[in-house]
Design goal:
The complex is a heterodimer of chains A (575) and B (172). With 575 residues, chain A is of the alpha+beta class. Chain A is built from 15 helices and 21 strands. In chain A, β19 and β20 (533-540) form a beta hairpin. In chain A, α6 (244-262) crosses α8 (285-312). Mean pLDDT of chain A is 77; it is low at 1-50, 125-139, 188-192, 217-224 and 566-575. Chain B is of the alpha+beta class and 172 residues long. Chain B contains 4 helices and 8 strands, in the order ββααββββαββα. Chain B has helices at residues 20-50, 55-84, 122-127, 150-165; strands at 8-9, 14-15, 86-89, 93-99, 103-109, 113-119, 129-136, 143-149. Classes of the chains: A alpha+beta (575), B alpha+beta (172). The A-B interface holds A 162, 187-189, 368, 505-513, 516, 524-529, 532-534, 542-546, 549-550, 554-556, 558-564, 570, 574 and B 1-2, 4-10, 12, 88, 90-93, 95, 101-109, 112, 136-141, 143, 170-172.
Chain lengths: 575, 172
């Protein structure tokens, strides 16, 4: 229990907080000096920002814990349906187990809820705002404190100026209950230790807390047009050009199989499945195989469009103030990611093969503090697959300057022609050779038809590999444009990276015996953001050091030698 | 940048400790070469005892698939590594070269150094060696110098620590 102390008037704490989240009933004018009488049994009595009082999470969180019951109960119901209402002894045991674990989980949830408290402490204000707890120690800077734990009490303290991103995520269940999870991420490798999460707060509280957490910096005036992009449903035509068209079908089939398997139904033994298979084998294959492919493609497209809608419904990318970029999206699960401008180190324009063929692209942020690799992948999306001009515009809007490298491909320096060779060799070695060898071997052993398959396969894949290798080579490029390093590579996904040069914290030169012989080297720029390392593959080894020194000065100059004057080192000093 | 010629990145100045070759040899014996040779030996013995007829084709097969790669790795890898591995602490940056088949040269400025760790594995301790790892805020910027002598490792970590202390901020 927190000790009561008189709440203070908000002394200019919520200065310049932009009106958060349209649609959320926020009232930033928090003047209601409602005494949060320190007995937060009735939570959702919205505490004032900056009262420095310990606050509880929203009690509705407890209901969220019941959410995990859905799966076992659903499977039980399905079992009952599948067996025609006869619930077996095994099912009863399952039910008992569910009940027992429900009791345990609810208890744990209750304890966690009861023992978790958080507050924002402010440095002593003019009217005595600040930490007023027993034994409270004043912080020099405003901090977010979260204490939790039943036996082991943990108190985590994060200075507000260390907080990099604040996300609000609400699963459908959360939205049903009107609550949301707030995650505050700091800089760091994002291994979970650098993140505080509060599960869960009412939407209004969370919005207010977020505004408060992000209010600690020199808030400049917002840009003239803070909204960078909104969803346009014309972009939906790009949804089927993603991996999910083919992959999604198999993923869905796999999960369906797993679910059926879990409730004790073996799909292969179902009557209609077996009938379908026997008929499939008996009918004209040259008709059924393309038909099946078409069905898969159609299903995949529908799935991809559905995924696109779920992920990007209500998508809006805007600058909430001059230094905070925010992405809001989602239909059932709403996601809202905020990226502090100082942590936005660059932008990645991705053009997967299919999407590129359709003239589309998507945009990702290269930002620090978004969490580990997985979380970073989920959160860094700035734009769904959309027309390429739109993607370039959004990338420029995120950088607040025209996206470099958006001009003609010639704007980037090409890589040496010899870089084409390893791409060809790799393709021939990994795609053409094994398939041909297997087919030829089988053909020699069993049937001459496969021998014909082998040479057809070899011819077709060789042509494809050569074409892809040429494309991969032509996509290679690097350059420096203003404050950005620009690098482009990849064929299955052509990625154009614009990275702040000052963010580069280390250079790596990697070689293998083959590249050493061809005079190539792969440069890797290390940044404390995004994927950590960004590769510039296969530059000319003779030019790479000069390029690295020019792109990010102050790292490797002292280790350079000039062939003509081996003793002379460049007397460059850091600016 | 002066324009008169393309500069080259010279290798780092200091080689690692010569004992590192023994350490890498021991590592190879324990991890890859030893097991491979053992498997070859066991199969040859079993074949001798039970299937003498298989020796004419099994012998060369074992030789090509197991014995030669194992011995080659054991002989080549440590020497090659020793030729490549090098390190240097400059005025403003740490520079290290590593690897053998796939080689890496990495340079990180001292302003970005976050921690310096010195690690001694059981094998390394036997040879009086240590590995110094300099971590930065980015995993792609971490510098690892393996096979230093104990004294060098102590000295190096102390100097990097001192050099990095002069810098404020969170070095991201």
């Amino acid at each position: 229990m927190s000790t009561p102390h008189e709440p203070s008037a908000p002394d200019g704490v919520d200065r310049d907080i932009p009106d958060a989240a349209s649609g959320a009933p926020t009232t930033t004018s928090a003047t209601s000096s409602a005494t949060s009488s320190a007995a937060p049994t009735t939570a959702s009595s919205a505490p004032l920002p900056g009262t420095g009082q310990w606050q509880r999470l929203d009690p509705r969180t407890l209901l969220v814990h019941c959410g995990w019951m859905a799966a076992p109960l659903g499977s039980l119901a399905l079992t009952a349906l599948a067996t025609g209402g006869r619930i077996t002894a095994q099912a009863w045991i399952t039910l008992a187990a569910i009940a027992a674990s429900f009791a345990v989980v609810t208890t744990i949830g209750l304890i966690r809820w009861a023992r978790t408290e958080f507050r924002v402490t402010l440095p002593g204000g003019p009217d005595g705002t600040g930490t007023g707890t027993s034994g409270g120690h004043g912080h020099a800077s405003p901090t977010l404190e979260v204490r939790s734990g039943l036996l082991t009490r943990r108190l985590r303290t994060v200075p507000l100026h260390r907080i990099r991103t604040v996300d609000l995520t609400a699963s459908p269940l959360h939205r049903l209950l009107g609550v949301t999870v707030l995650r505050a991420g700091t800089a760091g490798s994002g291994d979970g230790r650098s993140e505080l999460s509060l599960e869960a707060l009412t939407v209004a509280d969370a919005e207010r807390l977020r505004a408060e957490l992000l209010a600690y910096a020199d808030a400049e005036a917002a840009a003239n047009d803070p909204v960078v992009a909104r969803i346009s449903w014309r972009w939906l035509r790009y949804a089927p050009l993603t991996f999910w068209v083919i992959g999604g079908v198999f993923v869905a089939a796999g999960s369906a199989y797993r679910v059926l398997d879990g409730i004790g139904i073996e799909p292969w033994k179902l009557g209609f499945v077996q009938r379908a298979f026997t008929e499939f084998g008996a009918s004209a294959l040259w008709l059924t195989v393309p038909a099946a492919l078409l069905v898969v493609l159609a299903l995949g497209s529908v799935g991809a469009v559905a995924l696109y809608v779920e992920n990007w419904f209500h998508y809006c990318l805007d600058w909430t103030d001059a230094r905070t970029l925010r992405v809001r999206r989602g239909l059932f699960t709403t996601r809202s990611v905020t990226i502090e401008r100082a942590r936005l180190r660059g932008v990645l324009l991705r053009e997967p093969l299919l999407l590129r063929a359709g003239g589309g692209a998507l945009v990702r942020a290269v930002a620090g503090g978004l969490g580990n690799r997985e979380e970073n992948r989920k959160r860094s999306g700035l734009l769904p697959p959309a027309p390429r001009p739109e993607a370039l515009r959004v990338a420029g809007g995120a950088l607040r300057s025209p996206f470099p490298g958006s001009g003609s491909p010639a704007a980037l320096a090409p890589h040496p022609r010899i870089a084409l060779r390893p791409r060809r060799v790799r393709g021939l070695l990994w795609a053409v050779l094994p398939g041909t060898a297997v087919l030829a071997g089988l053909g020699a052993a069993f049937t001459p038809v496969l021998l014909h398959c082998a040479w057809v396969y070899a011819v077709v894949t060789t042509a494809l590999v050569l074409w892809l290798a040429r494309d991969a080579y032509r996509n290679l490029g690097h350059g420096v444009e203003g404050p950005y390093l620009v690098a482009r590579s990849g064929t299955f996904s052509r990625d154009t990276l614009a990275l702040q040069r000052e963010a580069i914290s280390a250079w790596t030169f990697s070689t293998s015996p083959f590249t050493r012989r061809s005079g190539l080297v792969t440069l890797t720029a290390a940044v404390a953001a995004g994927e950590d390392g960004y590769r510039i593959p296969d530059l000319a080894a003779a030019e790479a050091p000069a390029f690295a020194a020019m792109a990010a000065p102050g790292i490797l100059e002292e280790f350079l030698t000039y062939p003509e004057a081996p003793d002379h080192l460049p007397g460059q000093r850091l600016p | 940048m002066p324009e008169h010629a393309a500069p080259l990145l010279r290798p780092p100045r200091h080689r690692v400790d010569p004992r590192a070759r023994h350490w890498w040899t021991a590592q190879a014996l324990l991890t890859l070469s030893g097991p491979m040779l053992l498997v070859a030996l066991v199969m040859a013995v079993l074949s001798l005892l039970f299937f003498p007829g298989a020796l004419p084709w099994l012998g060369p097969l074992l030789l090509v698939v197991l014995v030669l790669p194992a011995v080659g790795y054991l002989v080549v890898m440590p020497r090659w590594r020793y030729a490549v591995h090098a390190w240097e602490l400059g005025e403003r940056a740490v520079y290290a070269a590593g690897g053998w088949f796939w080689q890496k040269r990495r340079i990180a400025p001292l302003t970005r150094v976050q921690t310096v760790d010195t690690v001694r594995g059981p094998l390394q301790r036997r040879y009086g060696l240590a590995t110094v790892t300099v971590t930065t805020a980015s995993t792609a910027g971490d510098i690892k110098i393996a096979g230093l002598s104990d004294a060098d490792a102590e000295e190096l970590s102390r100097r990097i620590g001192e050099a990095a202390q002069d810098v404020s901020g969170d070095a991201t």
